[in-house]
Structures are given as C-alpha cells and as structure tokens.
Amino acid sequence: MAILKTSALAKINISLDITGKRSDGYHELRMIMQSVSLCDDVIVETGTGKEIELRSNLRYLPNDRRNIAYAAAVLFFEDSGITNNGIKITLNKRIPVSAGLAGGSTDAAAVLRILNTAYENPYSKDELRSLSLKLGADVPFCISGGTALSEGIGEILTPLPPLPECHIVICKPPVNVSTPNVFSRVNLQKISLRPDTKGLLECISSRDISGVSRRLYNVLEEITGSDYPVIGEIKSTLISCGALGAVMSGSGPTVFGIFEDIESAEFAYSELNLQYCDCHIVKPSACVNVTTE
Ligand code: C5P
Questions:
Q1: Confidence (pTM)
Q2: What is the phi/psi pair of residue 29, to 5°?
Q3: Catalytic, out of 40, 107, 138, 172
Q4: Is 11 a catalytic residue?
C-alpha cells in the first residue's frame, strides 16, 4: 500500500484564438496557457483491493466514470495493461467547477502523473501527454503545466519562458457555461479580432508584463460575454482597480486580471468579493511534483 499526492494547478488563457475546424467537430486552437497557484489536492492510495474508488469534498460531483479523474485511472490501467490492485482517489477541490480553469482536466492529469510514478514510469512525459488527449483537449497541457503555447486541439505544446512575477485576481461569476455550446456557436468567418499571439510571445520572452497584459485576448469572450454581461462588468471592475489587463479564461465564465503590485490586486479582490464569492488572488506557477507519503 502506498499513498501518493500532488497539487493539480488551475490554468488560465493568456490568449485563445481559433484557426480552423476539423471534420470531427473539434476546433484548431492557438492559445497561450499559464498554470496558476490555485489548485486541487489529488491523493491516490494504491493496493486497496477495491478497484477504483473516488471521493471528493464536493457532494454533487460524480464519483464514477463520469468524473474525468476516475476516467483517467480507467484509461491508465486499460492502456498500460498494468493490473489494478485497487486504488482510492481523493480530490480536495478548490478550483471552481465548469469555470474555464481546466479544473477537471488538471485533476485527470494529476491522476495520470501519480499512477505513472506509482508504477515506475511506464510512460515518458510525451507518451503520457499523448495518452491524456483521449480524456480532453486541455489535459495534455495540465500534464506539464507552466507557460506554454498550445496548438492543434490542445495537443501540440511548446514550452515558453515563465511569466514575470505578477499577481492575478480570478473571479468566477455564478453562471454556468457549456463549453460544447460555446464552441458550436463559433463562426470562423465572423471572427474580426484575434489575439496578437506573436506580440504576446515577444513580450513573454522580454519579460514585459505590461505588454502581455495589454494583449490579453480570447475570441470566445465575444460569445460567452454576450450571453452574460457580468463578464464585462467584472473586467471593468478589475481595470478600474488597477489591473494592467483583464480577459475571460477558456470558454468562461471566469475572468482574470493581471496586477503588478499586490496592493491593487488585494483592493480588486476585496471589491469583487463584495458581490462574488468565487474570487482568488493567485500567481503564475510551474507544475508541482508527485510526492509519496
Ligand atoms: O476536450 P474537452 O472535453 O475538454 O472539450 C469539450 C468540448 O469543447 C468538446 O466536446 C468540443 O465541443 C469543444 N472543443 C472544441 N475544440 C477544442 C476543444 C474543445 O470544439 N479544441
């Protein structure tokens, strides 16, 4: 019996562009992704003798294959052919659910990283990323985290230098967004504004956080933001409290703003927290290793 743990970091989209649509309905994306310090704890106990058990601190989450963390364990054992002598997965969730922060994807990636460590690395990092794409488009990024350019449907990853030191205020309004619904309403011919990905890459390389913040852009914000004006309202609050820039993450509805100084970030947090309970101050982060108890 062994107990292994890791932190599963949330991600934000510094940018999100859509460059095409595939015949299977998935969209070709070009995104700059960043892991942040907001995280779930993922703990896996092996050798329990009871197939796969899953528990979380959120009662409404399914604890079977419908939970992507459970599906990750099923995939690991099926694909590797390793005999499962029983595992118990415990999720302590802090990342808001269905928020555009890859909360489910990062838990699934954490389960794969933990099981790969527990069974003495049957997969290389590249192989684990390829396998993880079967679970969802954001999972490969979550395997390594950090700062990366993500292309294809999310599986072509190019590591980037880390973002310069900054403070990020995240706020999820209390609305539910369906990612398939948002993507189904994308009209490629009608996208008039796109992120300046080249400019963003240059600003990241030159450690220019103001330049990065001025260029935050997500083409999906036009769709989700038109359904929920609260997204624009949160952006305005972040900017009026001193954010260098603000944008929606993923398919939404979470919005984040980048701040150079902690005082302004704390002020923005306290203003938003008067109205919204799901607010966090976070930092850009690199992926956290698996530890054994
Ligand atoms: O892969 P994942 O399950 O996270 O994606 C959820 C939904 O988002 C997909 O079913 C698809 O409708 C949409 N999507 C897309 N193109 C991508 C990623 C997701 O159309 N690259």
A1: 0.96
A2: -120, 160
A3: 138
A4: yes
